[in-house]
Amino acid sequence: MPLSNQMADDGSSFLCVGYNRPQDRHVPGDRFTHCWKNSAVDERGHWDRRDLLDTVMVMTHALSQDENIRVAEGMTDDEMNEVVFVTEGDDG
């Protein structure tokens, strides 16, 4: 049962979180299903509340760090998109 979802205007990608059935879980506390689908990814996983909260926390922290760097360097978002932040061999 969906709780929240977001679809691209053209329907090319989809992100959702919803409830799942207890009999479908490997871990009893994983009552949420998180799904992500686009041309490169088709993932669905069962997550617990802590999984969702920690994922949101990590993402918002990364966005905050990125914004701090952008402002400190006096760059636009487009300029930030051109910067190479990883070195050869990084998979990040």
Give a quick summary of the entry:
By secondary structure, the protein is α+β, with helices and mostly antiparallel strands. It has two helices and four strands, in the order ββββαα.
Q: How far is the N terminus from the C terminus?
A: 33 Å
- Helical coverage, percent range: 25-40%
Total helices: the number is 2
Strand order of the largest sheet: 1-2-3-4
Low-confidence stretches: none
Strand percentage: 25-35%
Largest sheet: 4 strands, antiparallel
Structural class: alpha+beta
How many strand elements? 4
Radius of gyration: 17 Å
Q: Average pLDDT across residues?
A: 94
SSE sequence, one letter per element: EEEEHH
User: Which shape, going by the Cα principal axes?
Assistant: elongated
